[in-house]
Design brief:
The protein is mainly α. The protein has a domain of about 270 residues: Glycosyltransferase (Alpha/alpha barrel), CATH 1.50.10. It is about 45% helix and about 5% strand. The protein is built from 22 helices and nine strands. A hairpin with a 2-residue loop joins strand 4 and strand 5. Helix 20 packs antiparallel against helix 21. The radius of gyration is 25 Å and the shape is globular.
Length: about 675
């Protein structure tokens, strides 16, 4: 792959030298800003912001337990009020569409903190919720919360029993068949669904005003999540199971609860929390409370600490993060600094910190589908040994390889071995599990969020192909060849690729073009040029790129009484530094460093407002679950623009056409 980098034939022209000098000054400022935010032990951890749901759930959790903290909750309430949308409700991302479930939780949380429901913003929210069908139409997770608070009957949620954990692996449902995030959220939730506790709710706050009809008179709560015939049949099974639920032997229920809590305790993960994610931690804490654990019990104490570590509190406002992202931030920051002539000491501290986070001696849940593979990956959070993820591992391995291939030889090889072992049958890679594609389960009533599974995705697969190519694995290596075939097969008709973990087609297309370049794909091939043309077509008049979170949805239109679906691809609110950086990195990977599109994109980054090394970016730039849960990585607008500007300078000053790396 290294031969793809052109050898400098002559010095850049004087005009380019002047341009690069100005570019260099911005790079120096941005690099120094990023270095100044490195922790003493070498890592970076930027804030990770989700929508209003997480701070709302934090407040609801406190009132379930009866542990109200007015000082903290007043700050979260201020955040909730500031994120209310123009439509009266709450969106899933900045300046987004109304979302019923997020709005119900935010309204309830505000009312719990003592907000007056006759205030204009509460009346406004209430009207928006009623206009969209009322709280009874909220999603399954919201209705579970409402059931715990006695706001809806338990028949408002699907039958969710801990006895399901006793099923054999050949059964249609088995806990190993769903994604890691579903697993860690569902298992303690099964305990709650079986025991049906009632929130302490010390202030006796209800939200009956959010229902179109009294919740106990609402006949149908469940819905078919896919609209397919399998979903209709499973709705029938849920109805039948509800009739038999009172007949479940208590001994069998106790055995299921015991299995569930064994699962939770084994994966409690210290102060980093169950699964490293807030919903799983909150469900675990409520399960401990329901089962009578004292508040001084070690498991209860550590679970509570893990949750509170997610808080971001300022003087008069704050929010709760869904999880922490230090390994991801540190890996990506290393790549940005490696491009920008960083000093050895800064990089050495970061790479040593990363090396120490490699998971070498824990067989996580991924072992269920890959029992012969040795552990060797990295997690997303500080620690999450049961759940390393493929994407982080590929990014970290590439960073260590660039930093010092000899020093980190063992860590690199072990990481690559694990990634190769996690390849799915179709040639792609999922984020946390292999072959986690039991699509039948998407039809169960519980799965109305559409993110029960962790199938292979383009962006993660591209990262793995790029990593293997950077390490020297040839195109004829089975893992690389199958990975490339998967990527080609997933290209959209317009030339782009879908982005599962970042917004959206710009993210996916950047990822694939980097992988193709690293693997020695012919970058003049029609399928590659189609992607290049798509990126150029999407460039905005200001030179940047932007892609709204709404591109994960569809337009519903009717023509001659036939409903058709069309992705909302044309919805862009503004250019953003993150998405502009991805587009530019993708174009440079395709050999377009000298193109007018790249020059205008670089000019956009140089002209866009920033504070030191952090570019201004309000819009969300990533996705947890498409159409359900979105994220804003606060670090993206720092290290991605730095990375992009430095790569551009390096290619231009070196008279090279292609970057020699996998990302």
């Amino acid at each position: 792959m290294l031969e793809r980098v052109a050898t400098p034939e002559s010095a850049p022209p004087a005009s380019e030298t002047k341009e690069l000098d100005g570019l260099g000054r911005v790079i120096d400022v941005a690099r120094d800003w990023l270095v100044g935010r490195q922790a003493a032990d070498g890592h970076w951890a930027f804030e990770l912001e989700a929508d209003s749901t997480i701070p709302s759930e934090y407040i609801l959790l406190n009132h379930f337990l009866g542990t109200i903290d007015d000082k903290v909750e007043s700050k979260l309430a201020a955040y909730l009020k500031s994120t209310q949308g123009k439509h009266g409700g709450w969106p899933l991302y900045h300046d987004g569409d109304f979302n019923l479930s997020a709005s119900v939780k935010a309204y309830y949380a505000l009312k719990l903190t003592g907000e007056d429901i006759d205030q204009p913003y509460m009346r406004w929210a209430r009207k928006a919720i009623i206009d969209h069908g009322g709280a009874a139409r909220a999603n399954v997770f919201t209705r579970f919360t409402l059931a715990l608070f006695g706001q809806v009957p338990w028949r408002a949620v699907p039958v969710t029993r801990p006895e399901a954990l006793l099923l054999p692996k050949w059964a249609p449902f088995h806990i190993d068949k769903v994604s890691y995030w579903s697993r860690t959220v569902m298992v303690p939730l099964m305990v709650l669904a079986a025991r049906k506790p009632r929130a302490r709710n010390p202030r006796r706050v209800d939200i009956r005003e959010l229902f179109v009809k009294p919740p106990e008179k609402q006949r149908f709560y469940q819905s078919n999540p896919t609209g397919k015939w399998q979903g209709t049949i499973l709705l029938g099974f849920d109805f039948i199971a509800r009739a038999f639920e009172p007949l479940v032997p208590k001994a069998l229920e106790r055995k299921g609860v015991e299995r569930a809590m064994t699962f939770v305790r084994e994966r409690l993960n210290g102060e980093d929390g169950l699964g490293g994610i807030f919903p799983a931690m909150a469900n675990a804490l409520m399960a401990f409370d329901t089962l009578g654990y004292g508040r001084d019990h070690p498991d209860y104490v550590v679970c509570r600490k893990a949750i509170d570590k997610l808080l971001v509190l300022h003087d008069d406002w704050g929010y709760c993060q869904p999880c922490l992202s230090p390994v991801w931030d540190t890996g990506l920051a290393c790549h940005a600094l490696l491009e920008s002539e960083i000093t050895d000491g800064v990089l050495a501290r970061a790479t040593e910190w990363l090396k120490a986070r490699q998971i070498l001696d824990v067989d996580g849940d991924w072992i269920a589908s890959r029992p012969g593979v040795r552990p060797g990956g990295w997690a997303f959070q500080y620690w999450n040994n049961y759940y390393p993820d493929v994407d982080d591992t590929a990014v970290v391995v590439m960073a260590l390889h660039r930093a010092d291939v000899k020093k980190y030889k063992d860590a690199i090889e072990r990481g690559a071995e694990w990634v190769i072992g996690m390849q799915s049958a179709n040639g792609g890679w999922g984020a946390f599990d292999a072959d986690n594609d039991h699509m039948f389960l998407q039809n169960i009533p519980f799965a109305d969020h559409g993110a029960l599974l962790d199938p292979p995705t383009v962006d993660v697969s591209a990262r793995c192909v790029g990593m293997l190519a950077q390490l020297g694995y040839g195109r004829d290596h089975p893992a690389v060849a199958r990975g490339l075939a998967f990527l080609r097969s997933e290209q959209e008709d317009d030339g782009s690729w879908f982005g599962r973990w970042g917004n959206n087609y710009v993210y996916g297309t950047w990822s694939v073009l980097c992988a193709f370049n690293a693997a020695g794909e012919n970058m003049k091939a029609p399928h590659v040029q189609k992607a290049v043309d798509w990126l150029k077509l999407c460039q905005r008049p200001d030179g940047g790129w932007g892609e709204d979170c709404s591109t994960y949805w569809y337009h519903r239109t009717w023509y001659h009484s036939v409903e058709t679906l069309r992705r909302r691809l044309d919805e862009v609110k503004t250019s953003t530094p993150s998405q502009t950086s991805w587009a530019l990195l993708g174009l440079m990977a395709a050999g377009e460093v000298d193109s007018d599109s790249v020059r205008r994109g670089i000019d956009y980054l140089l002209a866009t407002r920033r504070q030191g090394g952090k570019w201004h970016e309000e819009y969300f730039n990533a996705v947890g679950f498409p159409r359900v849960f979105y994220l804003r990585y606060h670090g993206y607008s720092a290290y991605f623009p730095l990375w992009t500007l430095a790569r551009y300078r390096n290619l231009k000053s070196g008279n090279a056409k292609f970057p020699p790396f996998g990302i």
